[in-house]
Design goal:
14 helices; NAD-dependent succinate-semialdehyde dehydrogenase; about 475 residues; 20 strands; binds succinic acid; 2 domains; Aldehyde Dehydrogenase, Chain A, domain 2; about 20% strand; oxidoreductase
């Protein structure tokens, strides 16, 4: 953060509609200043030992865990995720710091055999340079640490542009990095009500060597184009439109519980939330009834109440999209077997729609809301074809007890992540990312740190 007499913008809670904080509204000048500081800090941070970086990241992890309750309340207040779920997010966020504290020590090089007995060919990996990260509001903590953890572990400095809807969590995390002993300007948070001009500063500056973004496909394409003139490294984790294929050999009760977990976490505002539930005809009626009963039991309420399972949508635009999808489906013959209507303010009832068909809007776009549309299928081929019939390719799920089918269908699904009898595959040590219009690059695990490293080759002729 820079300056003291800055303009501010109002941060409005989606549950109460009240202004909960004044956030520094940083300008082009602040962005330029952040670049200067980040570039300068990179000069020394890149030369620190991986063990030093590891110790700092481990302390950062410990401080996140110390403050789980406080950070969870910030998340609940600023973007409406129920506080119990938000506490889970904070632990998930910290796990990226823990993982990359370890992974920093495994940035191995290679010695390659040469044709000459006097030559040694040595390959090492170096930090790519100062990084610009743009993160979404739906996981204010975890989408930040999934970028900040590997960047800092690799020896990069990072400027994080927090989402306008969820800056408090990002600011708190920058404080914790300082408390952990993180050197000044290695991790800078930028807050602004208008990200376009500040982002232009980052994208135009050739000293920023990488852009990493989680958000919509539309914005991802713009950033990829803006990164081209300075040839920045780019990783994009973009939209999804996840299918869930429930075969008639599934354990029905478990499949219902899994679809509830996958669909309704964060009120459906997750890139990997199921968006299309395909159910085989023989079990469709029973599945629909059980899913509707379970969805109707979900407790909708104040995100700061520990018992709440479904909070509000993040803003009026998000709510309008959910309403549009549901209205369109109902007008074209779908039935709401539970829910189907908006509540007060930014709330929408947990909803299950049956009788959904491919031509409905909800089957073409990511809803990002608490709505589960059910589509009935007959054959495995038909289900796979429908699941792949989208420009997106982030996550797909299936439920089956047939081992051959499990492998066959997993192989045929054109997605970066497959949850086989598993509704929540995301974890710090695994690769997260998509294919097609869901982006490129991977976050998490040993793949995540590669995105922040370049390869250097040293040819030594020693006689
Ligand atoms: C996302 O919505 O992009 C993140 C979800 C996850 O990490 O599971």
């Amino acid at each position: 953060m820079t300056g003291t007499a800055q303009p501010t913008f109002d941060l409005i809670s989606p549950s109460s509609g009240q202004v909960i904080a004044q956030i520094p509204d940083q300008t082009v000048q602040d962005a330029q200043d952040a670049v200067e500081r980040s570039v300068k800090a990179f000069g020394s941070w890149r030369t620190t030992s991986v063990y030093e970086r590891s110790v700092l990241l481990r302390k950062f992890n410990d401080l996140m865990l110390r403050d789980v309750g406080e950070i969870a309340r910030l998340i609940a207040s600023e973007m409406g995720k129920p506080v119990t779920e938000a506490a889970g997010e904070v632990k998930y966020a910290a796990s990226f710091l823990e993982w990359y504290a370890e992974e920093a020590k495994r940035i191995y090089g290679t010695v390659v055999p040469s044709q000459s007995v006097t030559k040694q060919l040595m390959v090492t990996h170096e930090p790519v340079g100062p990084v610009y990260a743009v993160t979404p509001w739906n996981f204010p903590a975890a989408m930040a640490t999934r970028k900040v953890g590997p960047a800092l572990a690799a020896g990069c400095t990072i400027i994080l542009k927090a989402a306008e809807q969820s800056p408090l969590t990002a600011l708190k995390m920058a404080e914790l990095w300082t408390e952990a002993g993180g050197p000044a300007d290695t991790f800078i948070v930028l807050t602004t009500s208008d990200p376009v001009p500040t982002t232009k500063v980052m994208m135009d500056d050739a000293r920023i060597r990488k852009i990493t973004f989680t958000g919509s496909t539309e914005v991802g394409r713009l950033l990829a184009a803006q990164a081209a003139p300075t040839l920045k490294r780019v990783s994009l984790e973009l939209g999804g439109h996840a299918p869930y294929l429930i075969f008639d050999d599934a354990d029905l009760d478990q499949a219902v519980a899994d679809v509830i977990a996958c669909k309704f976490r964060n009120a459906g505002q997750t890139c990997v939330c199921v968006n299309r539930v395909y159910v085989q005809r023989g079990i469709a009626d029973e599945f629909t009834r059980k899913l509707s009963e379970a969805a109707a039991q979900l407790k909708v309420g104040d995100p700061l109440d520990a018992a709440t399972q479904i909070g509000p949508l993040v803003d009026a635009q998000g709510l309008a999209k959910v309403k549009r999808h549901v209205t369109d489906a109902l007008s074209k013959g779908a039935t709401a077997t539970t829910g189907g209507e908006a509540g007060e303010g930014l709330y929408f009832q947990p909803t299950v729609l049956s009788g959904v068909r491919a031509e409905m809007l909800i089957m073409q776009e990511e809803t990002f809301g608490p709505v589960a549309p059910i589509i009935v299928f007959d054959t495995e081929e038909e289900a796979v074809k429908a699941a792949n019939d989208t420009e997106f390719g982030l996550a797909a799920y299936l439920w089956t007890n047939n081992l051959s089918r499990a492998f066959r269908v997993s192989a045929a699904l054109e997605y970066g992540i497959i949850g086989l009898n598993d509704p929540v595959p995301s974890t710090a040590q695994a690769p997260f990312g998509g294919v097609k219009q869901s982006g490129y690059g991977r976050e998490g695990g040993l793949w995540g740190i590669q995105e922040y490293l370049t390869t250097k080759y040293l040819s030594m002729n020693v006689k």
